[in-house]
Amino acid sequence: MDNNTFIAVDFETATYDRMACQIGITIVENGEIKDTIVQLIQPPHNYYDLNCVKVHHITPEKTANAPTFDKLWPKLEPLFTSYIAVAHNASFDESVLRKNLDYYGIPHNKILPFFCTYDIYGLSLENLCKAFHMPIEGHHDAGFDSLCCAKFFLNFSNHVRPDMSLGFAEPKKKTETSSSKQIKGALLKKDLTNADPENPFYNKKVVITGVFTIDRDVLAETFKTMGADVNSSISKKTNYVIIGNAPGPAKMEKLDSLIAEGCNIRKLYQCDIDEIFAGNLEKYK
Description:
The protein is α/β, with parallel strands linked by helices. The chain has two domains: 6-166, Nucleotidyltransferase, domain 5, CATH 3.30.420; 185-284, Rossmann fold (3-Layer(aba) Sandwich). Helices cover 34% and strands 17% of the residues. It contains ten helices and nine strands. It has helices at residues 50-56, 60-63, 69-82, 90-103, 117-121, 125-131, 142-157, 216-225, 249-260, 270-277; strands at residues 6-13, 20-29, 32-40, 85-87, 114-116, 205-209, 229-231, 240-243, 266-268. The strands form two sheets. The chain has a five-stranded mixed sheet with strand order 3-2-1-4-5. The protein starts with 5 loop residues before the first strand and ends in an 8-residue tail after the last helix. Residues 170-179 have low confidence and may be disordered.
């Protein structure tokens, strides 16, 4: 991989099932940032899930005249097939790309691999901006986030280290997978400010255990935007336990014990996550 020539990519999504509403692409050639492309995308039927809008503030009105992803792809394809792509939480952005291509029946076997700056540093985009003394005011605009990611990767290539004196947790070891790491920090602080009280997870205690198809921090953050109170341990007050592959044995033993005692704790699995992120919430109320 050429660490000095690449594209940094960020998507904002309209729906839980990852239909894109904005893309940002920062082009880096020979170690220099050449351009940042920002484009609104009209999602299928111009439909948005409310909690997605609350994150990025892109609305159906803003994308009413934007091109759909299939119309935009001929302009984007040369970038994704000619450059290595870098993203922060790359598993999310790569899955958004492939999900949208699949929706329109567009082959994607020629897309080059994604590399992840989160895997390098182990800090959220917001905290990493702070650690590199970069502004954060434009977070959740795809162009801004892609530019941040490009700078993160250039810093890595140039051996510029983040300032960890601000009290961030140490970056995770490379042997630790982002899908199985412990959820901690701000993700465990309940925030109902922008959550919809009608959401079935509003003010409900949720515990996540195991490995999923998406990063556990992304999973926790998504449920938190729905109003969930994400916890690290199971108790009698727990409402939902989200169970992935290879769940923690101690957590599962505790869960089975509490259910046997009569506690009303609902188990959810990857198939349920897919349903929830697709906006099918009724059966979880």
